[in-house]
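Thread: Ornithine decarboxylase, structure

OP (GT): Posting the sequence first so everyone is looking at the same thing. Length is 370 residues per the record. Can we get the C-alpha cells written out before standup tomorrow? I want them in the notebook alongside the other entries.
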Amino acid sequence: MPESPYLVIHPDRVRENFRALDAAVRARGARSRLRYAVKASPVPELITLLDAEGAEFDVASIGEIDLCLGLGVAASKLCYGNPIKKAADIARAHAAGVRRFAFDTEDDLERIAELAPGAEVECRFLASAPQSRTPFGAKFGCTPAEALRLLVRARDLGLAVAGPYFHVGSQQLDPEAWRIGIRQAGAIADALADKDIRVTSVNIGGGLPISYADAAPALSEIAAVVNAAAAEFLPETADLVIEPGRALVGNAGTIHAEVVGVRHAPDGRRWVYLDIGRYNGMAETENEYIAYRFVTDRDGDPVDEAVIAGPTCDGDDVLYQRTRVLLPTTLRAGDRLQILDTGAYTASYSSVSFNGFPPLTVHVSGAERE
C-alpha cells in the first residue's frame, strides 16, 4: 500500500469531461476553444492528454510555461493569462514563443507592448456576476469602460486585440453569471467595432462547477445559458474561449488518507484528525468554501458529527468545524478513508514541507508516477 496520503488521478475521466464540454459549447455554431487552466492540476500526463485532444492552455507563470513546452505543447497553444506578472517574465515568455497575454492594467499593457511586440491580448474586466463559492473579489479585472479604453490603447500600441475577458469566480453555482458577463463583454465588443477594432475572441474564463457535498448545476444547463447568451450578445465571428480547470479534473481524482487520531474536546465535540490537511492538499477547505465527501471502511456503522482537522500544529489547519460532516462513530486511528472529487487544486496547492510534511504524492491511474 502506498504511503498515505496520496492522490489518484484517472485520465480517462479527464478525457470524457473535455469531450463533453467541447460538444456542449460547440452547439453555438461558431468556433469555441477550450483552454485548460494548468494551475488546477499540473500533472504531466493530463497536459499531454489534453494537448492531444486539441486543448489550448492557460498558464499563470514561467514555471507552467516551461512545464507545457517541456512536454511538447506548442507555444502557440499557450496564453499567459495571469494579469500579475513581472516584466522579466513577459520577456521570457515572449522569447519562448508565447504570443497571447491577458492584462487588466495600463502598466501591464505597456510592458507587454514593449517586451512582446505584436502579441495578441485580452483585457480582463470585473463582471457584475453573483459571488461564486470561491470568489476572487476585486483582485483581478478593471471596469468594462476601462477595458474598452485599454483595448483601444492596445491597438494603438501595435498589439493584436483579441477581445474582452472575464471570470465569474471559481465554483460558480449560478448559470446566470455567465449571461451577465457575456452581455457586458458583448457591449465592449460592440463599442470596439465602432472604433474599427474587430474582436476575434471573447474569453469567458472558467468557474464551471462540479458537485461536491452540495449539488451543482449540470454542465448542459450552464452550456445552454452560455450558448444562448453568446448568440444574443457576441459577434458571430468571435471565437468563444473557455478556460476550464475544475470542470475537467475535479471528479477525476480521489485522495486516499488515514485517520491519525480521534479526540473528544472539552466542549464535547468529536475531532477527527487526518494525515492530510490545509497545507498538503486541502487548501480549498479555507473558509469551508468546498465541502468534500468522505468514504470510509466503516460506512454503514452509526454516524455522528465530527470536526475534521489536519495533522500540523497550526491552529488554522482545521478543514470543517461549521460544515456538518457525519462520520462513523467507530472511526479510529489507522482507519483508511477516501476524499472524493479531489482532482482539482489539491496537489497544485500542496506546500513544499510545512511542519516537515511532504507535498501530496500523485499517482496516475494506468501509469507509475510518484
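GT: Both are above now. Quick notes for whoever picks this up: The two ends are 13 Å apart (CA to CA). The chain has two domains: 31-248, 251-364.
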